[in-house]
Amino acid sequence: MAEHLGTDRFLDRYFNGSLISIPPFPSGNNLLRPRLKGVTWNRGRFAGDYVIRQDTKMWGNLFSSRGYREMRMQGYIEGEKTTVRLTDQFQNAFENGIPDTFAFEDLLVWLFAFRGFPTEVQNWKDLYEYFLQNELDLQNFPLPYQGRFQLTPDRPWPETQSARPSDEQFLTELAPRLEAYLAAPPERQATGDGTAKTNPISSDDAVLSVILNGIAKETSHSFLLAGPPGTGKTKYAHDIANFLTNGVESRVLFLQFHPAFGYDDFVEGFRPVEIAGGEAKGNGVTYKLDPRHFLKFADRAKDDPENHYVLVIDELNRGDVARIFGELLTYLELDYRDKEFTLAISGNTIKLPRNLIVLATANPFDRSVTDLDDALLRRFIVVTMEPDKAFLQKYLTDKMVESRVLTRTLRLFDILNDAFAAGFGHTNFLHVRTIDDLADVWEGRVKLGLQRALFHDRQKYAGIKDEVDQLLKVDEEAEVAGEGQSAEG
């Protein structure tokens, strides 16, 4: 189907909210997700509706924490997150994955419900052939799909209507909760100057899809972006926090762990307080037990249960995570949210609210810090962030970087990702526009680190350095002429 119509165009034709005058999200996305055969959504704001709208595109759903990984492992999809392709094995798996209760007639009803079909269509066979030939420009479905995409023998043709119901009637029947929400939406959250913030991340971004999927399925509300430096972990964390909170800064707390950071900084601890002893006696100091960053933030989240509150922890593994979290570790799990537990120092009892999201970043290849605690990792959904050559190439191409600079940049990217065991991130190259910029990356960001990494293999380092030196030689004639020749030219 996608070969003839294109996935987005197919979805817009049959599964877009505009079909019944539902306005899109600010992102422009407006995907309708229906439930068939009397099944309604069973949780969330729109529980009881037969259809919801979703601020995503269909391909974004591939990148769920479970679905994407499992399909890759089983050989159903191939390529990286930016260039996913379905394999031949996917078709058979798709066929086997559709339940026996599926009836193609029910899908046809949805596909034509909002636009209708020609009056000459008088039975299921007519409608089936009309859909194939006039909507999809096909004579038949590909063989692997024919097992389920067929008509049920002897199914009676229903009574049809000659007049289309109004959009209001459709919405009232299919999604009364969504209809009420659209009639009186909550007020838009604004920044301090009264203007609403825009989301810097696309709603169908691959990494964001993993986070949204974990929250929606209640798999976890704790996530770890893990990867080598230069893969965009910290920026992603900021952008995702902004997305989850609709840009409301008071619902985001940013912390960075380091070796001196402890439980008394994170949870609760004694803090010095100056006391006045009078003119004759001078000032003194006493110690007061206070809640610290995490507890204060959790209290704010508890008082506003309808909204997400996001704690972003940068450089998670640069601190002693087991000591910093203490007894909170267990209660990060969703099964233990809203359950009382006792704090170690004060003896007070608290609960962690379900709307508190923890989003952390870590470089698991940094040998200058201790390994992440296994007990902590079990409570996080880990999203691996890897150097992305395809992203780098597209980004620099969009910035109109000359081909000879682009070619050399991609070559240096490859060299460094072969040389560093953990890889070398693409964000290190985002500001490259000239050969001089590329040389600055090599001299300022790479050279010393590579010397350290290959300290015991000086011959390999010398070989790489020679290759890079050749790569960074400026072709003066090409520079003067402004020619976009490649590095090999």
From TrEMBL:
InterPro entries: AAA+_ATPase, ATPase_dyneun-rel_AAA, Methyl-DNA_Rec/Restrict_Enz, P-loop_NTPase. This is 5-methylcytosine-specific restriction enzyme B. GO terms for molecular function: ATP binding; ATP hydrolysis activity. Residues 219-391 form the AAA+ ATPase domain.
